[in-house]
Amino acid sequence: MTALDTLVPGPLSLAGHRLGTPQQAGALTMVPISGPAHPGFVPPRTGLKLSRVVGYGQVELTNGAPSGVAIVPLHIGYIQDHAQNHALCRSAFLAAGQTLRFDDACCVQESQGGYLTGGDQWFFVLPAELRARALELRGVHGYSKLWADIAELNARYGLPRRGHLEQILSRQRPVLTQFQSRLELQPGQVGALFFLAGRFAGLEIAPDPAYFAEMWAALVCFAYGAAAWHAEPEPPPAVPYDAAGLAGLRGALDRDRSGRIAEIAGWLADAPAGPVDVQEEDRYLDLRLSTVTGPHLAGQIVTGGDRTVYASLFAR
């Protein structure tokens, strides 16, 4: 489980990236990815801020760093008190000091008034079940465009059928944030593979470990943790290891770990593959932001020459 270069076709070369030891928390399995770090990129929490909600479906983000380009994470959203919560349908580039207005944002909190002008906020990434639809709606104006899908997701989760994403993100936050501690971020980690109940769910790659560390909670708790919480299996019965002494126990643990790695390697081999369409959306110097769509996969990637700088790809 070391090569990733053949996982995704097209221009997304993952040469130099390697898979680490898998970790599992209930229905969610995370395989850490290490790889080359690309300097000059602003982390999303310390450098990128939601500066203003202009109106329903219209938000402004600012790169407040003195230098470096910010890659706006795909499907990032913001929760704030006494104001309308929004999420973005697409990624973008922001130069140092630049403010960019997104007129195709989606409101994720039906029938809650108020606009933000500064103040406390925390960000999330849209749950996996909403991401394909949100990507389809990039460029479409209409603040309520995701409400029906959010209401349907809430209903599947056994919650009131309303276009209020905070029913999952805010009210279930204490449960969802447990994934942040149950799965351990690794030193030097720049990305991760996520599997839900044994099926490929997503691939996330960041420019460097600092960027990925600031995305960690949003991804593991909300983008993938929400679906894992909904699919949480009953805990298996405890089966003691049949081992005599410390050496025998270590051997049993090694065999268990090897079997687990082989199982996940099978999941990776079984991940749907095939041709995808790659559409360039934006440029910044030598960087290219593109949308990837296929029958099995969707998302956005940032490449610089033959380098993969950023990727957020999810199963359809």
List keywords for this structure.
alpha+beta; nine-stranded antiparallel beta sheet; four-stranded antiparallel beta sheet; 8 helices; globular; ARG and Rhodanese-Phosphatase-superfamily-associated domain-containing protein; ARPP-1
Q: Mind explaining what this structure looks like?
A:
The chain is an alpha+beta fold. The chain has one domain. The protein has helices at residues 128-136, 147-156, 166-169, 173-176, 178-182, 209-223, 225-230, 245-270; strands at 18-19, 23-25, 28-34, 48-55, 58-63, 70-72, 76-79, 86-87, 92-94, 99-102, 106-107, 122-125, 189-196, 199-205, 277-284, 287-293, 297-304, 307-315. The strands form 4 sheets. Strands 1, 2, 3, 13, 14, 15, 16, 17 and 18 form a 9-stranded antiparallel sheet that branches. Strands 11-8-7-12 form a 4-stranded antiparallel sheet. Strands 4-5-10 form a 3-stranded antiparallel sheet, with no helix packed on it. The radius of gyration is 20 Å and the shape is globular. The protein starts with 17 loop residues before the first strand and ends with a strand.
State the end-to-end distance: 24 Å
Please estimate the helix content: 25-40%
The count of strands amounts to 18
Rg (CA only): 20 Å
The overall pLDDT, averaged over residues, is 87
User: What is the overall shape?
Assistant: globular
Q: How many separate domains make up the residues?
A: 1
Assembly form of the protein: single chain
Query: Unreliable segments (pLDDT under 50, ≥5 consecutive)?
Result: 113-118
Series of secondary-structure elements, N-terminal to C-terminal: EEEEEEEEEEEEHHHHHEEHHHEEEE
Percent strand: 25-35%
State the secondary-structure class: alpha+beta
Number of helices: 8
**How is the main sheet built?**
9 strands, antiparallel
